[in-house]
Write a structure and sequence with these properties.
Elements (H helix, E strand, L loop, with lengths): L2 H16 L3 H21 L2 H34 L2 H35 L6 H30 L4 E4 L2 E4 L2 H5 L2 H31 L4 H36 L1 H7 L6 E2 L3 E8 L4 E9 L2 H7 L5 E2 L13 H28 L7 H9 L2 H16 L4 E3 L3 E2 L9 H32 L8
Antiparallel strand pairs: 1-2, 3-6, 4-5, 7-8
Helix pairs in contact: 1-3, 1-14, 2-3, 2-5, 2-7, 3-4, 3-14, 4-5, 5-7, 7-8, 7-12, 7-13, 8-9, 8-11, 11-13
């Protein structure tokens, strides 16, 4: 493989692995803040035990996420130096603000939270946890604004052969980035809810700490139910914007080859990119693509055949990623509605508890496929319509990237194994009695 493909594989591996930890950091921090607020308001020790139990899992996840995230920014210099030269004036400040402001705030407040148990009042300590959660989500804003600019560049001028910042406000309030932020953060809160429900279900199946994990499950259920609906709604809004600014991605998401009004959706298809058609189409619903893309059943959707081949993303990956993401999102709404009706008789429904236990990985998969859709669907552009990915790669030898790729996979695998082992081990132990904490 050439340098371009190896660099793409390395960045994809690092990003997808790192993003196994980011959503839980964002979502679980808010849930823990809610739990600690309940303790501060009621004085009920069970909420203090909840805060410490879920807080320990949060800290393990946070630590691995930090380690795996640091290397990503270095790759813009090692693997994507041409990209950095071309757009560094715009991309650099966003990453700098994320690292020097939001991340440092989050880390500082987290340190206060860890070491401030006996030094702060209950209300002050709960307030610090809220600051941790807010700072974490502020960190996500800057990263997603940077990605949103890559998806839909605004607020720049081309000068001296490179993109330079013209309007910082336009970049920060880029609609694409804002929609990405709301969709990503709502998905993270959904994941946090499912994580809490899944771990709680494990203990409820064993009838361990029943009151503790019943209450935890109900808190996770609220987050899962509310944010499964919000995630679906924000996803719809994001899809409408994609149809407006990245019409070729919309066509690839639905494997739509011809331009037509009342464009249909195919529940499943196997695209044949060489012959520009679908080999198999199952479950065609007329007009639904036009409605989803433009909120008008009669709207015309531009087909892939009307875009140059060199400007089309890989259709099969884009199509399947979208289907898996949407299918799982629909499942989350269904499961949380079922959970709402069973919330007061969880022990009487072991089958549902088992389903929720084995559902822990599903939000992770939905988020990973969502990012695969966003990034693969943007190809062949690294900055949509402005710079091709093939022009962004560093002038290095292929074997150098191959060696670093192997190194990433090995090190990340060890880190992941250690992180997940610690999380599973501590999750199985259950809460420590408060007297012994």
């Amino acid at each position: 493989m050439d340098v371009l493909m190896l660099s793409r594989l390395q960045f994809a591996a690092a990003t997808l692995f790192h993003f196994l930890f980011v959503p839980l950091t964002l979502g679980l921090s808010v849930i823990i803040a809610v739990m600690e607020t309940k303790y501060a308001r009621t004085g009920d020790k069970i909420y203090l035990s909840m805060t410490k139990f879920w807080g320990k899992l949060f800290l393990i996840n946070f630590a691995v996420g930090i380690v795996t995230g640091i290397t990503l920014e270095f790759q813009f210099g090692t693997n994507w130096s041409e990209y950095s030269k071309y757009v560094g004036d715009i991309f650099g400040p966003l990453l700098a603000i994320e690292a020097s402001v939001a991340f440092f705030l989050e880390s500082t407040f987290l340190g206060i939270w860890i070491f401030g148990w006996k030094k702060l009042s209950a209300k002050a300590h709960a307030a610090v946890m809220w600051l941790v959660a807010i700072a974490g989500n502020l960190s996500a804003i800057w990263i997603l604004m940077a990605n949103g600019w890559m998806q839909h560049p605004v607020g720049y001028v081309i000068r001296n052969g490179r993109a330079e910042l013209k309007d910082f406000t336009a970049v920060v309030f880029n609609t694409f980035g804002l929609l990405e932020f709301f969709h990503t953060v709502s998905g993270a809160l959904l994941l946090g809810g499912f994580f809490v429900m899944g771990v709680s279900a494990y203990h409820l199946l064993k009838k361990q700490h029943v009151d503790f994990f019943t209450r935890s499950f109900k808190i996770g259920l609220v987050f899962g139910l509310v944010f499964s609906i919000i995630t679906a709604g924000s996803g719809d809004s994001h899809g409408v914007h994609v149809a407006k600014v990245q019409p070729v991605k919309l066509a690839a998401m639905e494997s739509q080859w011809v331009t037509e009004s009342h464009a249909p959706i195919h529940l499943f298809a196997i695209p044949d990119e060489k012959n520009e058609k679908n080999l198999i189409q199952i479950g065609t619903i007329p007009g639904l693509l036009s409605f989803l893309g433009y909120h008008d059943f009669s709207a015309t959707v531009k087909g892939l055949r009307d875009f140059p081949r060199k400007d089309r993303p890989p259709v099969l990956i884009t199509f399947l990623s979208f289907r898996i993401m949407v299918g799982l999102g629909t499942l989350f709404i269904f499961l949380t509605f079922v959970g709402f009706f069973l919330r007061n008789k969880l022990l009487e429904n072991p089958l549902f508890l088992k389903i929720m236990l084995f559902s822990i990985p599903l939000p992770y998969l939905a988020i990973e496929f969502g990012w695969t859709l966003a990034e693969v669907g943007r190809q062949p552009w690294i900055v949509y319509g402005l710079m091709r990915t093939s022009d962004a790669v560093s002038p290095v030898a292929g074997y150098q990237v191959l060696i670093s790729l192997i190194g990433f996979v090995v090190v990340y695998s060890l880190l992941g194994a250690a992180g997940f082992y610690l999380m599973v081990t501590n999750a199985k132990k259950g809460p420590v009695p408060e007297a012994a904490a």
